[in-house]
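Subject: NAD(P)H-quinone oxidoreductase

B.,
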Amino acid sequence: MTLSPPHMMQAIEITAPGGPEVLKPAEVTVPVPGHGQILIRVAYAGVNRPDALQRAGLYAPPPTASPLPGLEASGHVAAVGPGVTRWQLGDAVTALLPGGGYAEYALTHEDHALPIPEGVTLREAACLPETCFTVWSNISLRGGLQAGERFLVHGGSSGIGTTAIQLARAMGARVFATAGSPEKCAACVALGAERAINYRDEDFVAILRAAGGADVILDMVGGSYLPRNVKALADDGRLVQIAFLQGAKVEMNFAEVMTRRLTITGSTLRPQSDFAKARYARHLRKHVWPLVATGALRPVIDSEFALADAAEAHRRIETSDHIGKIVLKVS
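Prediction pasted inline below.
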């Protein structure tokens, strides 16, 4: 079934590994959905740090994925492949993508798309999949966060951070966040953090230990934060690692992990199986989408760029000056 998409489309290509300047507009072939896949006419695409890593040559897409950047998008179903039963032509969706979101059309597995929550615009919806899949799978399923526990997220003003603060608060946790400026700390508090810690002049370890220790920490910094996170955890606490902006190697004494029964875990989303991502999507629809519909969780949007200005969007995300998500307007 199809709405007869065109043969060619506008997209953003990575012309060579490098800085934002290697992102160039191009005309490429519209992909054709295979078994279990849907083709989305993209309205908006989310911009995420893994996109910048891919552009720099540090995060290769899976072999079967589009080489174009872009891991999330919103829009309307333009075509469905054989075996698709969940969606019809014209349905409004937001979706996790294996790649290819920086384009007028993008493919994804039908089970990785979700309906637009009530009251949410397509612009807002494009900001939901990558952060919600990542945050929910890590703080709930891996970290086992429970109501009443103390939760710390590093980079609280990022897209991941702003989502994690709201979701953890909605789950009944006490939320702490780190950020790098008074403005960013104020944004974290406005979203529901009871304490925002300016990491430039405050010690998050001392603050969390004074509060009783963190039961769950969500960290994307790594490097020197790893041993400090261990010290900031309460007994039986869980550290969940999702990125390593400061590096993945550090010397650390693991005796404390044993004696205080700590758990260190982590994940990356993109390489996981279609089955795993479909499971996360079911969890989101049941547990998270109602929070979005009621306004308890809404995406914080920092800025919007035209598709042709994707390089500027990457410059913005790499400054780390943004608060919340960055989106590309595609159509």
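The chain has ten helices and 15 strands.

T.
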